[in-house]
Write a structure and sequence with these properties.
The chain is mainly β. It has one helix at residues 58-66, and strands at residues 12-15, 20-32, 35-42, 48-53. A hairpin with a 2-residue loop joins strand 2 and strand 3. The radius of gyration is 19 Å and the shape is rod-shaped. The structure holds zinc ion. Zinc ion binds at residues 15, 17-18, 22, 42, 44-45, 47.
Length: 79
């Protein structure tokens, strides 16, 4: 039993401006500690028609660790 289609991608969403369902463009908006925030925009007029946040935090931790290339020397407390 294949489990590779666990996440359903939104191929088209209803656009209130076009008054019909149109293909959407998915854009990565934010990388949050608890997941990535995506934005769906109508590919015809560009109106934002939806968004979603996945629960994949691996990207955040990858970026967070990459931006911390030179960690400050851990301060030793106490003498
Ligand atoms: Zn539209």
């Amino acid at each position: 039993m294949s489990d590779s289609f666990g996440e359903l991608e939104a191929a088209s969403l209803f656009c209130p401006r076009c008054k019909q369902a149109n293909p959407v463009r998915k854009a990565l908006l934010l990388v949050l500690p608890d997941g990535k925030k995506y934005d769906y925009a109508c590919s015809v007029c560009g109106t934002q028609v939806g968004g979603k946040t996945d629960s994949d935090s691996s990207e955040f931790h990858r970026i967070a660790s990459a931006s911390r290339k030179a960690p400050p020397a851990s301060r030793q407390s106490g003498s």
